[in-house]
């Protein structure tokens, strides 16, 4: 992983995440100018009273000793600028970019973040918000997009779960160490995210969340997504803060409307009315704003002239029998469709030729971006 | 009523509403150029084949005979341009302005339309939409604004009822004669509107509604309000048509958001997202867009520096005990507030001096524009 980064620089960046708080622009400038190893050396050698700023960082020097062991126990890796896994999007944060990230999970962060949308919202969400966040995330996942969120109760959790439900990668950016089960009830959710995606933090393992860290964490969520969707938010909320950070980064801010009688939607309505957020109602709306013109164009997902409109009934039946979220053998597809093998294979060939299906090691699925649009009118 | 309009011209305009369909721009130009009496004369004297257009109008000449009797039975008056009761806002329709209006009810149309908002929406609305339309209309009525709508099932009815509930005038613009109980179940509602406001139509008494007439009626609703609010609308709906007509007239178009899971809100979300409608959640939002800067300024209704912020607790308690929608005796206010008569009278005097309460024939209420904002935190 990232052999081009000198080991000392990597280690120094990791150490600085222990000594400083996230989003420290002074430190960002120092590291950009001198390199992390030199900055760390200066922190270590600073004498009391010599440089007040460096003195602050010295306070936590004793904690550094335990970090290697902590990181191993946490199953975390350090990702720094220049690594393959470093998401280029974070560089937009300039001097407030993370010095390094602690990453845990089977996913590859840069890959996951390449086509990603941040979905955030109230902890104290309603059943409506939870439902919408889950559907939105599943819709994004089905179309090959990664959902980035904060791993919190409420909208965050619903968004992560929606992505996981369609077996899509999702990224949780925490305001504590990636080994810290916060909130405690999300231990299982965070494990599931690690199994399919990644859990990320600027803070080294063992770090506890603080109010300040939540706010600084929000800028990483805002930077990782191509845009930020707020699903439910009270008039003052962390989600609105994340939206503001996305706006500062010139990323599209989107908000889901809700009943005007619901306090949980007030923040969303404020964002739309006063702050120029786009009103979005589903994944298609979101991708109209942040998606790639060709791959994600609405008419391929929803519109009148879908490629399969011209399919013969037998081929359409095979298409409808094809799973989206996993792969299946041609035999299995034939059983679902109730068609014999030669017919199924001919149809699969046609579907593959028009880009509606693809095969990998002899197992077939619908091409994710091509469908989900038509709910099969009737089984069979 | 408008003695300056020659009787022959008034009668001719009334007659032309029988002979032509609403929104007939050709007729509008002819009347503007020649006067209604001359146009009617030419219709009467036209011979078959001489002028195809005039020939069309001749088809209904036999129906004219019964109109005087019908109008009397309907309790309707004819209002034409130049009359005191003619709303100047209709002139914005240009050659598509109504030739004349048939008006029934105790209200005065021009007065009612001076500060008015059109509130429209789906016939097949949800309980949510009905609730929001009612609250919105009551909020507008409380602030001295008239609600204009179409008298239909659903949102229209809820808006009219919301206005009536706060004893505010409301205007129903029908696509049939003002004497035609359509829909039949709204006979009582239309009677209530006539008692406090007005029922209006371009069509003479006895006329039945048609699809075309509904669409043409919408332009009158759009023109009468300073802006149009759509509360709930499916993706294709009459309410969106009204919104389009308001937009054509450069009147603000507003829409109330709702759950993205509700088909009844899809049209509203489309208006906000794609068509530039403003998202509004209550009467205060609406008046931010169409209200008068001083009278309706948000800080008088909601803002930080409300006059009563400086009130002593006892006076505030009396204020909260004061009804908004009706008047009450000082004794009754005292009972609600749990305060003795001298205390209540002193507080009422103070409230009257600061404009927060007013008395009429010894009966008190909160001054409508001054409050409704603070829901009393707790009774007592």
What does this structure look like?
2 copies of one chain form a homodimer. Chain A is α/β, with parallel strands linked by helices. Helices cover 44% and strands 11% of the residues of chain A. Among the domains of chain A are: 189 residues, Rossmann fold (3-Layer(aba) Sandwich), CATH 3.40.50.450; 64 residues, Orthogonal Bundle (Arc Repressor Mutant, subunit A), CATH 1.10.10. Chain A contains 17 helices and 12 strands. Chain A has a 9-stranded mixed beta sheet, with helices on both faces. Chain A has a 3-stranded antiparallel beta sheet with strand order 10-12-11. The longest helix of chain A has 16 residues. The relative contact order of chain A is 0.10. The C terminus of chain A is likely disordered. Chains A and B meet through helix 7, helix 12 and strand 9 of A and helix 7, helix 12 and strand 9 of B.
Largest sheet composition of chain A: 9 strands, mixed
Helix content of chain A: 40-55%
Mean pLDDT of chain A: 87
Number of helices of chain A: 17
Estimate the global geometry of chain A from the Cα principal axes: globular
Assembly context of the chains: homodimer
Separation of the first and last Cα atoms of chain A: 48 Å
Count of β-strands of chain A: 12
Beta-strand portion of chain A reads 5-15%
Give the strand line-up of the largest sheet of chain A. Answer: 1-2-6-5-4-3-7-8-9
Order of helices and strands of chain A: HHHHHEEHEHEHEHEHEHEHEHHHEHHEE
- Please give the CATH architecture of the domain at 102-290 in chain A: 3-Layer(aba) Sandwich
């Amino acid at each position: 992983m990232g052999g081009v980064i000198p080991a000392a620089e990597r280690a120094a960046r990791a150490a600085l995440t222990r000594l400083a708080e996230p989003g420290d622009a002074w430190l960002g400038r120092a590291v950009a100018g001198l390199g992390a190893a030199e900055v760390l050396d200066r922190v270590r050698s600073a004498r009391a009273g010599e440089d007040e700023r460096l003195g602050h960082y010295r306070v936590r020097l004793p904690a550094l000793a335990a970090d290697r062991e902590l990181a191993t126990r946490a199953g975390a890796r350090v990702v720094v600028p220049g690594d393959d896994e470093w998401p280029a999007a974070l560089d937009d944060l300039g001097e407030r970019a993370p010095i390094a990230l602690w990453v845990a999970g089977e996913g590859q962060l840069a890959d996951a973040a390449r086509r990603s949308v941040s979905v955030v919202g109230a902890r104290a969400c309603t059943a409506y918000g939870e439902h919408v966040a889950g559907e939105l995330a599943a819709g994004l996942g089905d179309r090959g997009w990664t959902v980035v969120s904060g791993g919190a109760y409420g909208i965050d959790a619903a968004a992560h779960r929606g992505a996981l439900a369609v077996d899509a990668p999702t990224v949780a950016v925490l305001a504590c160490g990636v080994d810290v089960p916060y909130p405690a009830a999300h231990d299982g959710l965070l494990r599931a995210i690690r199994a399919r995606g990644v859990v990320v933090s600027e803070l080294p393992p063992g770090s506890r969340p603080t109010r300040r860290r939540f706010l600084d964490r929000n800028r990483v969520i805002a930077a990782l997504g191509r845009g930020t969707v707020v699903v439910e938010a009270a008039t003052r909320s962390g989600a609105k803060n994340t939206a503001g950070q996305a706006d500062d980064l010139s990323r599209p801010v989107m908000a889901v409307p809700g009943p005007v009688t619901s306090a949980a939607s007030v923040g969303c309505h404020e964002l739309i009315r006063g702050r120029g957020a786009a009103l979005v109602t589903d994944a298609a709306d979101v991708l109209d704003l942040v998606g790639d013109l060709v791959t994600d164009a609405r008419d391929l997902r929803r519109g009148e002239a879908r490629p399969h409109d011209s399919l013969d009934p037998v081929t359409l039946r095979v298409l409808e029998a094809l799973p989206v979220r996993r792969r299946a053998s041609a035999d299995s597809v034939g059983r679902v469709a109730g068609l014999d093998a030669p017919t199924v294979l001919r149809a699969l060939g046609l579907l593959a030729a028009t880009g509606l299906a693809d095969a990998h090691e002899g197992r077939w699925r619908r091409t994710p971006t091509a469908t989900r649009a038509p709910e099969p009118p009737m089984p069979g």
